Amino acid sequence: MFAPPVSRAAPRRAGPRRPDLPVPPRRPVRLAPMPSRSLHALADRLRDVDDLMDAHAHVQVAHAPHDPSYELDGMNRAAILMLSAHFEGYLEELMRESLAAIDPQLDADPLLRGFGNPWPNRIDELFSFLGMRRPSHAICWEDVTSTHVRGRLEHMVRVRNQVAHGQIDVAIAKDDVTDLRRHVEGFARGMDATVHAHLTTLTGAEPWAAA
Hints:
By secondary structure, this protein is mostly helical. It has helices at 37-63, 73-102, 109-112, 120-127, 146-164, 174-203.
């Protein structure tokens, strides 16, 4: 379960106060007019995954004459670890940025100590502090349902945990890495727009400073 913003040993006042303002309705989302700095930074973060996949492609081409089905499982597993870590980092930075938009004095650290891996339910629990109701259930695009998006993110975190905990028989193909990267980026764009709309309702102003 998601830990409360403040540890049991810490005084209650150490955590930021929960804003008590109206919550906008959930709806399919579009990219916010002004993306957060966190979303801009995610594009740079994901280049690490792209670099690994580019290297994978070069090695695969070199092996193609001998084994057309050659897969670099180690690189694929490393890419999943990196993808999950960068997604988690994006969400943490988005929460910091969100709290700063409400009150620059609010400290996100007590909240983020209990966050951990970016399971969709944990994302919902984290952003419920802002008064948001299950934001991950509102994120979809084109013919991709929110249920499918959440399922893909859960698969990514599940594989990430298997690899991180030393399970050696985790098989994941390059196509799976590419698909998960697409879902991470799509979810992040949707989450950015959802949080942007919510904060605009809370504050009555553009929440993001110019990135």
